[in-house]
Amino acid sequence: MTRFSPFETSLWFATAPPAPATVPLEGRIRADVCIVGGGYTGLTTALELARDGVKAVLLEREEVGYGGSGRNAGHCTPTFTHYSLPELRKMLGEPWAERLIQRQTRANDRVAGMIEHYQIQCEWQQNGYVMGAPYPSMLKAIETKVETYNAVGARTAMLDRDEVAKITGSPRFYGGWFHSEAGHLNPLAYARGLARAVIQEGGTIHTYSPVTGCTPAPGGGWTVTTGKGEVTADKVIFATGAYTVGGWPKLDRSFKIQRVFVAATQPLSDDERRSILPQNTTIHDGRGDIFVYKYNAEGRIVASMFPMGRRGRDMAYTRQLMSDRLRWLHPQIRHDLVWDYFWFGELDMQYRTVPRLYGLAPGVVALTGLSGRGVPTGSMLGGILSEWAKDVAEKDLSLKLEPLTAAPFYMAFAPQMTLRYYRVADWIRTRLAGAALPPHA
Asked: Which SS3 state, helix, strand or coil, does residue 331 take?
């Protein structure tokens, strides 16, 4: 039977190399560790374990990269969302904060290393990331970012107006933050490449194998059941993120969903690319209601935003809004933009916007709450989960093991309210500075 992907309107689905051959689980098998979820977190965990000779079996409800790992915009910037590093230290406490900061800020070393070692063909480019300053009052916050991130070993710099214009090709910024270690890629191709690496290292992947339960095994360990088979394992890891469906009671209540959409234009001409993102960086326009974009290998601009009001519901309006914003940022675009691809993804949002590691039962953990930092974060989390599976002491892990808790009720509306607040705050600061407002601001 031919299966059709629900994200066939995605550029990544149209351009990624084929996934490795896998089959649904049938019958009973034994493993040291069973991993549920075939995104970056599950795949990198399986890869780490397989390389160390641990018998790892990964179960995926759909195809590898079906969830956020195959639908995201492909940015790979090893930073944190929303909270500054000093705020994270205060919120998480030590030693957890410093360990997680080191893991996250060095995550692109891990990504680049796996891509190189396993020769993953995923359009990987490591040319940096720019967050522009759309009004002068933002420059002070950028100075602080440079100081705090560079203090932990990141290589970032503050850009003046001319420098940011040279790198981005946009005249709209008063300066910017440049993270030289950031990159971008085809995220579905990366997920499929990780799957090939898992199999190459001796791990097992079963796709189209939805997990229906996880119960204590008679002889010890756990039995993970699917529609047509079961895995008995000493340890079980749930890494299903925003696409959690069943498997463990109430796990899907540990986060709230925030939707995001991504779109890709027709390929731009060589002449346009020489003046628009000429250094092939990723760019964030610096506003709280974000607009982030970069090129793919074909020269298409791939941009992402969060739905809000008509945006994301009215497709004609949404495409026009994105075209107007992009042409405003880059006045050298003098023709109509055609958004050839348009797709949606979902984020598993936590109020702390950092992942949470839950102890579900002796020998069973779950990890959710990536909150939109998918590529670098998911790639580094495999190291943490594999350490747990190899019996590294809880006190020595980089995430604190917590009891499963439901996300606060306000997370059902807080992300949207926060976006609206940022939009108003950006409007006020821009007007006070006498700066130009983008269309639809």
From this structure: coil
